[in-house]
Please model this.
Amino acid sequence: MTLPLAMYAQLPILIVVISLVYSATRFDRWDLILREAFRWGSRMVGFLVVIGVVLFLVTSFIDAR
Amino acid sequence: MSNPTTPQEHPVSFLAGLLSYLVPGLGQICQGRVAKGLLFMVCLLGLFHLGQAMGGWKNVYVPANDELSRLEDRIKELRKAAEPAADEINHVRQSMNDIAGQSRRPRLQQLPNNLYERWHYLGQFWIGISAWPALWQYFALPVPEEESHRFFHDLQSRPWEGEINEFWVDSDKTPDLGWIYTVIAGVLNILVIYDAYAGPAFHGDPREPKKEPKPQEASA
Model:
């Protein structure tokens, strides 16, 4: 693991595990578990992407000055 | 009539909750919810052990600051030397064996303070048996021989500061993510324990419209 981005390779594992486990504690039916897990996974990815974009814009703004 | 948004179908089971604490998902498996139990087991134990591996197996432990811990550090320091002094190691080990029994009660009394110093273990503890070696090591209970089972001898023992420094200097942020994974796995297991104890939060689809009772049922 020498690349700066390599540590983010484990991020999808974390998102999948949290979504699945959390959803499975809310429902017993697999169709509902998977649907809820997909929704939670999408929300987390969306949130992280927004944070990433904001940080990228901030650093770009700082570099440009 | 059962309301689909309130958990009523699962009887409360203290035993299932306890089993899911010991091994994530075991309570659900014993209740017949095998696939769900296996999902919890694979996901949480996988996440916990992945986190430990990312941290070089040095991120699940209970810290201590007493004479015994100083001797433990001394042994690890001696082992790291280019030419380990076997006589001194044996001497220190003998001193450790002499005071190990007397150190357990003071360590029990100091446990809240030591956990306050490293709160990570309060989250990791909830993964169950997988985090017990840290307590085993903390209370200086017998461990496998160092020469034959080095990994299990050191498993979840408090790392020596020099060892930690050396590991962190040679690492990127991966060890940081590692302990976070172990804490997340432990905290998620609290939800799993509750699921085994009292069932899932919802039965059926909460989006489905509630069935209105038929007039006969309502009058009955």
Summary: Residues 29 and 35 of chain B are 8 Å apart (CA to CA). The mean pLDDT of chain B is 87. Residues 1-62+121-132+175-220 of chain B form one domain.
